[in-house]
Amino acid sequence: MNKKIKVIIADDHVFYRDGLCSTINADMGMQVIAEARDATQLLKMVRSLEPDVVVTDLRMPGDGIKAIQQLSEEGFLRIIAISSFENDDLIIEALEAGALGYVMKNANRGEIEEAIKLVFDFIPYYSQSTSPGLLKDILKSNFNPYKEQETGIFTEDERRITTFICEGKTTEEIARILFLSTRKIDRIRRSISKKMNVKTISGVVIYAVKKGLYSGPPY
Q1: What are the respective helix, strand and coil percentages of the chain, to the nearest 5?
Q2: How many CA atoms lie less than 13 Å away from 184 in the CB half-sphere?
Q3: Domain 5-140: which topology?
Q4: How far apart are CA 122 and CA 199, in angstroms?
Q5: For domain 156-210, which architecture applies?
Q6: Distance from the first to the final alpha carbon of the chain
Q7: How far apart are CA 127 and CA 112, in angstroms?
Q8: How do residues 90-131 score in pLDDT, each as one tens digit?
Q9: Which end of the chain has less neighbouring CB within 10 Å, N or C?
Q10: What is the three-state SS of 133-145?
Q11: How far apart (Å, rounded) are the C-alpha atoms in residues 216 and 170?
Q12: Dihedral angle over CA of 31, 106, 60, 123, nearest 10
């Protein structure tokens, strides 16, 4: 039997923390083992309890960003930042400090579960609600979890379609340009996402830009 993913959550708002805890524990494959209300508590809990994944707010007593940086320096990398829409700058700081993913506070249960499972496997997670502005800021930031990954794994068709995705073109538009069926374009898009280990269009764009597969302005 597979062991559950051990999660520590940190947030100074008890009602949000309780809701997040219930959401995570509802998944049979994961379990909240501790709840922190500030950065100091979070650091102590991670060091003593050795969780698999940390899900932490950024605006809490003791500074969530500094806690992420400290954990990263100590070798703990499986961190998910949670934030509100108006705090894009904090998300950038969290990623540069060492977080491997982020979700918005209004994320649904399925997205939170997916984020935890991906980050547990050291795969970056980008919120489904990533705005164009936040995406551009991530592209300009120092955040780059793909430095060691190969780019030679992509076929010529995958590279061309990656460019079109970064330009914001839909499957139908790409099919018309390349004189291919939408079914084939969808199949190639799935292959691209699988090779990049990303789940969203934002993830494709971030990977492509950070790895030099695309150099123009996104969208």
Answers
A1: 50, 15, 40
A2: 10
A3: Rossmann fold (3.40.50)
A4: 14
A5: Orthogonal Bundle (1.10)
A6: 45
A7: 9
A8: 999 999 999 999 999 888 889 999 999 999 999 999 998 898
A9: N
A10: HHHHHHHHCCCCC
A11: 17
A12: 60
Task: Spell out the domain ranges in the chain.
Answer: 5-140, 156-210
Q: Strand pairing partners for 32?
A: 7
Residue with tokens 């980008």: 126
Angle, CA 85 vertex, CA 83 and CA 87 arms, to 5°: 65
- Are 145 and 196 a contacting pair, CB within 8 Å? no
pLDDT digits (tens, 9 = 90+) for 186-215: 999 999 999 998 988 999 999 999 999 998
The answer to whether 56 and 68 are in contact (CB under 8 A) is yes
Q: Are the C-beta atoms of residues 114 and 179 closer than 8 Å to each other?
A: no
Tokens of 51: 């969780």
